[in-house]
Amino acid sequence: MGEKGFSRTPPTVAVVGAGAVGSFFGAMLARAGTPVTLIGRKGSSSPHLGAVAQRGVTIDGVDVQERVKVAVSRTAGDVAGADLVLFAVKTPDTETAARSLAPHLGPRTIVVSLQNGIENVERMATAGVRALPAVVFVAAEIERPGTVRHRGRGDLILSSEDDRREVEAVARLFEEAGVPCPISEDFARAQWTKLIINAMANAISALAGVPYRALAEYEPTWNLAVTAAHEGVAVARRRGVDVDVAEVIETARAIAFSVGDATSSTEQDLARGRPTEIQALNGVLSRLGAELGVATPTHDALTALVGLREQ
């Protein structure tokens, strides 16, 4: 790949995936002066993408209320020439989107996966794209076309085990844009912790049609989430990742109250009739549990019920 890091200052950034996560982080970089292009699905008539093309992305956030101009495209080939590609597509679209990008990536382009789950980087590699994994913590949703409602967090974690100059270049770019982006010496633990927190609440929020705070305040649903946490931690430990169950539960509860009336991405997908990421969340814990001999009845049930709703 030659010399690592970005060849230009500021680097040019392409965000593949015009949802809430991609729009939020792309807009945060753009407001700091980085040229950003938001790339949606080919042939998409997305009202959000159309509104962004006309007026830019409006961040209605906890600390930022601002409209930011970004470029818009519906062509995967427009990643050509980008120094950094933020890959923020939904997990079911991972291989398809990665294959469409692969021919257009330059030898020095850095790709970062901003997706849920723990298997996306490997899936991208099979499609010909080498990517850095990131753990993403953000509560955001597209409130209306062109507007991203940011309800909490908004930080990334990168891995110290990846190419150091690439990782440091990406972390520095985000930090300069006001996005906390630490580099973790124990990335696997951070990644699994995020997975288990998502698996505790996303499906319950979706099936009950309630925000995070409501499921945390109602003892029966919170007890169900805690049971899911214990099962997820058991799978992680069997995989050799030391995750602290008390820390997971405490962090999940704090997040539930901090984001308040926000609903999960799974709930938003079901409400809009879109495929969910359930197989990359509870589904992966259910599958790995079966492979490793760890019982995961809660994740089995949540995966099945969300899957039925998708039908």
Task: Write a concise keyword list for the protein shown above.
single chain, 311 residues, alpha/beta, Rossmann fold, N-(1-d-carboxylethyl)-l-norvaline Dehydrogenase, domain 2, 2 domains, 10-stranded mixed beta sheet, 10 strands
- Helical amount among residues, as a percent range? 40-55%
**Main beta-sheet strand count, sense and barrel state:** 10 strands, mixed
Please give the domain count. 2
CATH architecture of the largest domain: 3-Layer(aba) Sandwich
CATH topology of the largest domain: Rossmann fold
Distance between the amino and carboxyl termini? 44 Å
CATH superfamily of the largest domain, please?
NAD(P)-binding Rossmann-like Domain
Outline the low-pLDDT stretches.
none
- Count, helices: 12
- Overall geometry comes to globular
Oligomer: single chain
Report the top-level CATH class of the largest domain.
Answer: Alpha Beta
Secondary-structure element order, N to C: EHEHEEEEHEHEEHEHHHHHHH
On the 0 to 100 scale, the average pLDDT is: 94
**Structural class assignment:** alpha/beta
C-alpha-based Rg, rounded: 19 Å
Question: Beta-strand percentage?
Answer: 15-25%
Total number of β-strand segments? Answer: 10
Fold and architecture overview:
The protein starts with 12 loop residues before the first strand and ends with a helix. It is built from twelve helices and ten strands. It has 311 residues and is an alpha/beta fold. It is 46% helix and 18% strand. The chain folds into two domains: 13-185, Rossmann fold (3-Layer(aba) Sandwich), CATH 3.40.50.720; 188-310, Orthogonal Bundle (N-(1-d-carboxylethyl)-l-norvaline Dehydrogenase, domain 2), CATH 1.10.1040.10. It has helices spanning 20-31, 47-55, 94-101, 120-126, 164-176, 187-208, 212-217, 219-238, 245-259, 265-271, 282-292, 297-310; strands spanning 13-16, 36-39, 57-60, 65-68, 71-73, 84-87, 110-113, 132-144, 147-159, 183-184. The longest helix is centred in the middle third of the chain and has 22 residues, at 187-208. Strands 1, 2, 3, 4, 5, 6, 7, 8, 9 and 10 form a ten-stranded mixed sheet that branches.
